[in-house]
């Protein structure tokens, strides 16, 4: 154990079971630990480093902006914030943007927006229906929206106004809808829940139901947005448009930023109703603008589709080879491999020892969410390591 790991246990709150590696440097899809060991990174900062680690375009934008203007109050106009908002709007179906610092904070703001909408248009309706097995963040409100007992139980009582129903079941949403419902909030594909894909027509049916009832459809694209599924936004793959969408993770390719986006009809905040000291500051916006512009200009999303298909085919190949792999599922570069037994932790360690970082999304499943810029060669390398790791745990 390095000295850093001892110091961590002395000084840092124990909120996470860390992988015993201290990372000190990253470049592209690779990271290095404090002993100089190299790893291929299929975690990517938890689906964050869209352009890989320390991409020159992001690093340069950060350096230039750091020398120019880092932070001002949101009382003033700043150029990178407006440039980023324009780029997001021009490349999505939404009309307005609010910038936050994280995914949870974006979702929290989206629910506040939905409640204001309910006050304006739905006789004060305030309840939000979300899904079991979802993940929307760690604030108290988002813990209530997150349909997982393990995240809720330690923090009871939770804020009122959230109802969790079965994912991929339109009837469950219909039964939970009352005159008090102002919005349905869903991840298009559940990431933390285990990469759970809905049926192709589920989101269309939810859209129809929201339209019928005049409720907002909030899509939490914190994990699926910015190309991860092979389109810039996941909603594009399901033939619908949300009223409100949240983003974070991949948006800044590593810098902490989140966004609420809304149709003009749903963008009902007026001055003073929402805000953030750091949200949308020039430093993070310059980096996110540079990252998003690079992603759009270089068809990084096309790469996700191509390499994602290749990764899926290779993982399917491993499934043919190992009977204990029960399923490979996902879209683009958000993919999970599930096993008969709870071997996720030993597989993670076996991969780590061989130089591959993966995520154990469930006791019996691994998740792969590499940078969006990886190529087939890196997939081959990862599959080679995973193959050895799988044969070591049989
Ligand atoms: C779909 C989704 N929403 C929200 C969040 C929370 O984002 P953050 O950790 O930036 O608050 C996550 C994080 O994993 C997520 O996957």
Task: Give an overview in words.
The structure is a single chain. With 394 residues, the chain is of the alpha/beta class. It is built from 13 helices and 15 strands. It has a seven-stranded mixed beta sheet with strand order 4-10-9-8-7-5-6, with helices on both faces. A four-stranded mixed beta sheet has the order 1-2-3-13. A four-stranded antiparallel beta sheet has the order 11-12-15-14, with helices on one face. Strand 14 and strand 15 (365-368) form a beta hairpin. Helix 3 (56-68) runs antiparallel to helix 10 (282-297), helix 4 (79-90) packs parallel to helix 10 (282-297) and helix 11 packs parallel to helix 13 (376-393). It starts with a helix and ends with a helix. The structure holds pyridoxal-5'-phosphate. Pyridoxal-5'-phosphate binds next to helix 5.
Question: Can you give me a brief rundown of this structure?
Answer:
The chain has 394 residues and is of the alpha/beta class. It has 13 helices and 15 strands.
As a percent range, the share of helical residues equals 25-40%
Largest sheet data: 7 strands, mixed
- Small-molecule binders: pyridoxal-5'-phosphate
Outline, from the CA principal axes? globular
For the CA atoms, what is the radius of gyration? 21 Å
Enumerate how many helices there are, as a single number: 13
What's the average pLDDT?
A: 98
Query: What class do helices, strands and sheet pairing give?
Result: alpha/beta
Question: Helix and strand string, N-terminal first?
Answer: HEEEHHHEHEHHEHEHEEEHHEEHEEEH
CA(first)-CA(last) distance? 28 Å
Strand order of the largest sheet: 4-10-9-8-7-5-6
* Beta content: 15-25%
- The residue ranges in which pLDDT falls below 50 over 5 or more consecutive positions are none
Care to count the β-strands?
15
Assembly state: single chain
């Amino acid at each position: 154990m390095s000295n850093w790991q001892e110091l961590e246990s002395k000084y840092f709150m124990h909120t996470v079971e860390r992988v015993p590696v201290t990372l000190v440097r990253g470049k592209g899809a690779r990271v290095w630990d404090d002993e100089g060991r190299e790893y291929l990174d299929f975690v990517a900062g938890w689906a964050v480093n869209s352009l890989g680690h320390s991409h020159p375009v992001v690093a340069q934008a950060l350096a230039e902006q750091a020398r120019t203007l880092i932070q001002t109050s949101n009382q003033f106009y700043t150029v990178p914030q407006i440039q980023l908002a324009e780029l997001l709007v021009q490349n999505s179906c939404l009309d307005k943007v609010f910038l936050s610092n994280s995914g949870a904070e974006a979702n929290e703001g989206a629910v506040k927006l939905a409640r204001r909408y309910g006050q304006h248009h739905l006789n004060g309706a305030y309840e939000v229906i979300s899904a079991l097995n979802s993940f929307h963040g760690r604030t108290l409100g988002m813990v209530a929206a997150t349909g997982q007992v393990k995240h809720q139980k330690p923090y009871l009582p939770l804020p009122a106004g959230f109802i969790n129903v079965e994912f991929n079941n339109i009837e469950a949403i219909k039964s939970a809808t009352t005159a008090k419902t102002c919005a349905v909030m869903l991840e298009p594909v559940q990431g933390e829940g285990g990469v759970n894909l809905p049926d192709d027509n589920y989101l269309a049916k939810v859209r129809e139901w929201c339209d019928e009832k005049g409720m907002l459809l909030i899509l939490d694209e914190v994990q699926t947005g910015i190309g991860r599924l092979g389109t810039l936004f996941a909603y594009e793959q399901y033939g619908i448009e949300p009223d409100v969408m949240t983003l974070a993770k991949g948006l800044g390719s590593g810098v902490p930023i989140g966004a609420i986006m809304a149709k003009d009809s749903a963008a009902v905040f007026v001055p003073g109703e929402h805000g953030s000291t750091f949200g949308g500051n020039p430093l993070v916006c310059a980096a996110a603008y540079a990252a998003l512009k690079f992603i759009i200009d270089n068809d990084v999303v096309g790469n996700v589709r191509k390499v994602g298909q290749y990764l899926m085919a290779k993982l399917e190949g491993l499934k043919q080879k190992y009977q204990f792999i029960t399923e490979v599922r996902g879209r683009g570069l958000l993919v999970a491999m599930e096993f008969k037994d709870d071997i996720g932790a030993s597989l993670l360690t076996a991969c780590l020892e061989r130089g591959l970082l993966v995520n154990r999304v469930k006791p019996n499943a691994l998740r792969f969410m590499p940078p969006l810029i990886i190529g087939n060669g890196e997939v081959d390398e990862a599959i080679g390591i995973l193959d050895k790791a799988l044969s070591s745990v049989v």
